[in-house]
Amino acid sequence: MSRETIQYGLGIVLVGIVGTIIMPFFGIVIGSVRLVALIIDVVTFPYNCMTAYHDKFERNKSLSEALKKMKEDLESNRDN
């Protein structure tokens, strides 16, 4: 066997060993990132629901005020 073939084989073996050692740490990092994302979602969900309800309430309130004004304008135009 040539020297390059031996070096290539050793490189493949070393990459396999290092990959086997490092892969569980990637799992730990990915798991911790997913756990933090889950905690953030759980904490912010009630706030998002509350603001969505508030925005919907404000939008409905402004729509009802606009409809009331349109009705008053229509009635005042009928009187004229």
Structure, explained:
The chain is mostly helical and 80 residues long. It has one helix at 3-79. The radius of gyration is 33 Å and the shape is rod-shaped. The protein starts with a helix and ends with a helix. Helices cover 96% and strands 0% of the residues. It is built from 1 helix and no strands.
Structural features:
single chain, 80 residues, mainly alpha, 1 helix
* Number of DSSP strand runs: 0
Euclidean distance between termini CA atoms: 107 Å
Secondary structure class reads mainly alpha
Provide the succession of SSEs.
Answer: H
Instruction: State the share of residues found in helices, binned by percent.
Output: over 70%
Count of helical regions: 1
What share of residues are in beta strands? under 5%
What is the 3D form? rod-shaped
Rounded to an integer, what's the Rg over CA atoms? 33 Å
Largest sheet: none
